[in-house]
From TrEMBL, chain A:
Keywords, ordered alphabetically: Membrane, Transmembrane, Transmembrane helix
TM annotation in the entry: 25-47, 63-83, 95-115, 147-171, 191-210
Protein name: Cytochrome C oxidase subunit III
Positions of the Heme-copper oxidase subunit III family profile domain: 24-212
Subcellular locations according to the entry: Cell membrane; Membrane
From TrEMBL, chain B:
Family: Belongs to the heme-copper respiratory oxidase family.
Membrane-related topology note: Multi-pass membrane protein
Alphabetical list of InterPro entries matching this protein: Cyt_c_oxase-like_su1_dom, Cyt_c_oxase-like_su1_sf, Cyt_C_Oxase_1, Cyt_c_Oxase_su1_BS, Cyt_c_oxidase_su1_bac
Keyword Glycosyltransferase: no
Gene: ctaD
Listed EC numbers: 7.1.1.9
UniProt source species: Acetobacter fallax
Role description: Cytochrome c oxidase is the component of the respiratory chain that catalyzes the reduction of oxygen to water. Subunits 1-3 form the functional core of the enzyme complex. CO I is the catalytic subunit of the enzyme. Electrons originating in cytochrome c are transferred via the copper A center of subunit 2 and heme A of subunit 1 to the bimetallic center formed by heme A3 and copper B.
Cytochrome oxidase subunit I profile domain location: 10-526
Protein name, UniProt field: Cytochrome c oxidase subunit 1
SUPFAM superfamilies noted in UniProt: Cytochrome c oxidase subunit I-like
TrEMBL record, chain C:
Keyword Transmembrane helix: yes
Record-annotated membrane-spanning stretches: 31-49, 56-75
Entry keyword annotation includes Transmembrane: yes
Protein name, per record: Uncharacterized protein
Keywords: Membrane, Transmembrane, Transmembrane helix
Length: 213, 549, 98
């Protein structure tokens, strides 16, 4: 892609293309919010109809790792926003540096998450026949952990996709003379990255906080 | 509109500009992608039809003709899944939608051409996964995948099929995003919202459902696959889970998806009715907004699929009342089409025959829906052939008629060739007759209590079942006919002029088939849609000037 | 730059608030704080008000249908009276006490 609008493409001006791309990304994120919405409906219902078991599950999650991970994600999202601002002012080098820092923080998040998972596997918190929580609330706790593993898995997949997108941005910065269309790419990847952060801001209280005491 | 001088356009159309296979498989031209989709969904339509043929063959005898009970279950499941996700949901949006949205807007392409190509590859991959699962044994859950049958008890190949349907969802979302953003951003100068053809309003409404309902299906299938693979409880009642929650999530998508399967058909019919009556659509704004309101209300009514499943009475009453609301915008459309036809000089070409078939069959399908929206009568009719007949009147009588109508209507534009009109009319009449013979007896069967999804039935139902199967064989012939004469017309059909139907709309102002960039100059829109007065005046002027040229 | 730092510190503060609320068992407070954090991200990081106006329309549409999903989707579960597990009828709205 070059600075001028592609004469065979559907746009008259580059600004028109930029605006359209950003709008399209927002529409995709609206779609994504309903993907997670289905999950949150599951948690909303079970947290109330199976309140005791659900709360027993919440009490077994690792608040320290969850909290640290939340701080990491907030920071990562903030730093990527710096990359977007730098790209807007055509400071390519600063933009790439910030983007890479954000991605590195994302990887730290994923590592911590993997560690947390392995800990939970060892403690037999994955639902199944040897499930650690027993008693009257075992069923509800299993439902909680089914939700926990699927929700964190889905979020982690989004993190991995996001990290890949940031890597793509950085690679492209090295190759082409990054004109306005590169800046737009930086921006839409930023929207995605912040959205993944946003989902965690809801997942964190649902998985670690609400019902803990 | 007059024939624009050929010199305004490049010699070669989008079809032949670059003929290599590679150029087709890597194309970002919305018109070529539409054709790729057209071929793909035709294959799936044929596959799904084989399932239907076997079902009707089986039900000729009360004890069943050819299939074991289990194979029968796998057959109707295959028929349902292929027809819903690989044919009906994509059908009009990905073919005519892809082809026409930029043309009707006066744009060079959709907003995200590469995303459009990606959506086709996703769709092909999803189709292959589904077919792999179906041919490696299939599954017996019905197209609805209800838990716990699909998670704990099934012997079938749930995973590849679920994965395929999951992927097809992303293809739908990509198409939906493309259409919505294109309509917002790529309208030609002067093309205001109320100057857009009704087809675009219908496709916009459909895309809203694509984008906002499909993700819920994705997450539902993900939860299902998670439970199936790891044997953990998500909907498992043994752990206190709620199997009905699966149904809520499933129908949150699948009821709006019913409107995915009818709204684009309504758009096609609006175009055809206006053109062949040579009149503007009666109550344009009402028809336009009724599309949007059908899409919106369609999200609020899914509970009527679960009246006898054990949902709360309170929820059932709310969903029942909301369901009745959908009939209002649907009726607005039907009456406005009739209002348009009233007093018009109607030309009964094949597209118009299909459109009229649509109006009649959709009305029957819609009115029988009211019986199913009412709590009391639904208890008697649900899970019987009444339901089967009802939704086939909407989906086959409605959507497939509209699809064929659209195919005949835009065939000259897409290929540059005319189809044989007489054969077109014969096929349209045969489809209408065969369809009614197949499905009308099923209303009676259902009312008398024949349950759906069984491989056998009591003897007193045989006469009606044989009638239904006879109708299905007529329908099969009627569906093969267009395939034959469309193929014939590609080679031998008369060359199509730019505007063979004397229709309004920007797509008819370019050549048939259009050049790759759609329009030589970006068109400027100066009047509303369906402005036949201007069209006729220009044609008269052109006719007077013609001898001097 | 300064604005981003401000948003970042506000998010950390709110996170601390959430932890405190957890220790006091104030579940509704946690939810309110989480909504605030989401708003800060949408306005501060995703800059929705600087985006094309279409973005706002799409975001509002997404939010609206999310509300429909959550409200109508939970309607049945929260009003069901004929469904018993472990002897307890499930017949209350979340904000009613059992």
């Amino acid at each position: 892609m070059s600075d001028a609008a592609d004469p065979h493409g559907p746009y008259e001006t580059l600004r028109h293309q930029e605006e359209t791309t950003i709008a399209g990304m927002w529409l995709f994120l609206a779609s994504e919010s309903l993907l997670f919405g289905g999950l949150f409906l599951v948690s909303l219902i079970y947290a109330h109809t199976r309140a005791n078991g659900w709360a027993a599950g919440v009490r077994h999650t690792d608040l320290v790792i969850g909290g640290v991970n939340t701080v990491i994600l907030i920071t990562s999202s903030a730093i990527y926003t710096l990359a977007v601002e730098a790209a807007r002012q055509d400071h390519k080098r600063r933009a790439v540096q910030a983007a890479m820092t954000a991605a590195a923080l994302g990887l730290v998040f994923l590592l911590l998450k993997a560690f947390e998972w392995s800990k939970e596997f060892k403690e037999h918190l994955f639902p199944g026949t040897h499930f650690a929580i027993t008693g009257a609330d075992a069923g509800g706790a299993q439902l909680f952990y089914s939700f926990y593993f699927l929700a964190t898995f889905l979020h982690a997949v989004h993190m991995i996709v996001g990290t890949g997108l940031i890597a793509w941005i950085c690679l492209r910065a090295g190759k082409v003379n990054p004109g306005k269309s590169w800046n737009t790419s930086v921006e839409i990847v930023g929207l995605y990255w912040s959205f993944v952060d946003l989902v965690w801001m809801i997942l964190f209280p649902v998985l670690y906080l609400v019902g803990r005491t | 509109m007059t024939e624009t001088p050929a010199s305004l356009f490049p010699e070669r159309s989008y079809l032949w500009q670059d003929g290599t296979l590679r150029s087709w498989l890597l194309t970002t031209d919305h018109k070529r992608i539409a054709l790729l989709y057209l071929v793909t969904i035709t294959v799936f339509f044929a596959t799904g039809s084989i399932g239907a043929a076997l079902i009707r063959l089986q039900l000729i005898e009360p004890g069943g003709m050819i299939l074991s009970d289990e194979t029968y279950s796998r057959m109707f499941t295959m028929h349902g899944i292929v027809m819903v996700w690989l044919f009906l949901v994509p059908s009009i949006p990905v073919t005519f939608g892809n082809f026409l949205v930029p043309l009707m807007l006066g744009a060079r392409d959709l907003a995200f051409p590469r995303l459009n190509l990606l959506s086709w590859y996703l769709f092909v991959a999803s189709g292959l996964l589904v077919l792999y699962g179906l041919f490696r044994g299939g599954l017996e859950t019905g197209w609805t995948f209800y838990t716990p049958l699909s998670t704990d008890y099934t012997q079938g190949r749930v995973l590849p099929v679920v994965a395929g349907v999951f992927l097809s969802g992303f293809s739908s979302i990509a198409t939906g995003v493309n259409i919505i953003v294109s309509i917002h951003q790529l309208r030609a100068p002067g093309m205001t919202w109320y100057r857009m053809p009704l087809m675009l309003w219908a496709l916009y409404a459909t895309s809203v459902i694509f984008v906002l309902a499909t993700p819920v299906l994705s997450i539902t299938l993900l939860l299902l696959a998670f439970e199936h693979i790891f044997r953990v409880g998500v909907f498992d009642p043994a752990l206190g889970g709620d199997p009905l929650l699966f149904q809520h999530l499933f129908w949150f998508y699948s009821h709006p998806a019913v409107y995915i399967m009818i709204l684009p058909g309504m758009g096609v019919v609006s175009e055809i009715v206006s053109t062949f009556c040579h009149k503007p659509i009666f109550g344009y704004r009402f028809v336009a907004w009724s599309s949007i309101s059908i899409a919106a209300i369609g999200f609020l009514v899914w509970g009527h699929h679960m009246f006898v499943a054990g949902t709360s009475l309170y929820a059932a009453i709310v969903f029942s009342m909301l369901s009745f609301l959908v009939s209002v915008p649907s009726a607005i459309k039907v009456f406005n089409w009739l209002g348009t036809m009233h007093g018009g000089s109607i030309r009964l070409d094949a597209p118009m025959l299909y459109a009229m078939g649509f109006i009649g069959l959709f009305t029957v399908g819609g009115l029988t829906g009211l019986f199913l929206a009412s709590l009391a009568s639904d208890v008697h009719l649900t899970q019987t052939y009444f339901v089967v007949a009802h939704f086939h009147y909407i989906m086959v009588g409605g959507m497939v008629s509209a699809y064929f109508g659209g195919l005949h209507y835009w065939w000259p534009k897409i290929t540059g060739r005319m189809y044989p009109e007489m054969w077109g009319r014969i096929a349209a009449a045969l489809i209408f007759f065969g369809f009614n013979l197949t499905f009308f007896p099923q209303f009676i069967l259902g009312y008398e209590g024949m349950p759906r999804r069984y491989a056998t039935y009591p003897e007193q139902f045989q006469v009606l079942n044989v009638l239904s199967s006879a109708g299905a064989s007529i329908l099969a012939v009627a569906y093969v006919l267009p395939l034959v004469y469309f193929t014939w017309s590609l080679f031998k059909g008369a060359r199509a002029p730019g505007n063979p139907w004397a229709a309004t709309g920007l797509e008819w102002q370019t050549s048939s088939p259009p050049p790759t960039e759609n329009f030589a100059r970006t068109p400027e829109v100066t009047s509303g849609p369906y402005d036949y007065a201007t069209l006729d005046r220009l044609n008269r002027t052109a006719a007077e000037e013609a001898p001097h040229v | 730059m300064g604005r981003i730092f401000l948003c970042w510190s506000m998010l950390l503060l709110l996170l601390a608030g959430e932890i405190v609320a957890t220790q006091s068992g104030l579940d509704r407070m946690i939810c309110a704080l989480a909504v605030l954090m989401v708003l800060i991200i949408v306005i501060g990081f995703m800059k929705i008000f600087q985006a094309p106006s279409l973005a706002i329309i799409f975001a509002v549409a997404g939010l609206f249908w999310l509300g429909v999903l959550l409200m109508l989707g939970s309607l049945d579960s929260f009003t069901r009276t004929s469904f018993f597990t472990s002897g307890l009828p499930v017949s209350h709205w979340p904000w009613q006490s059992v």
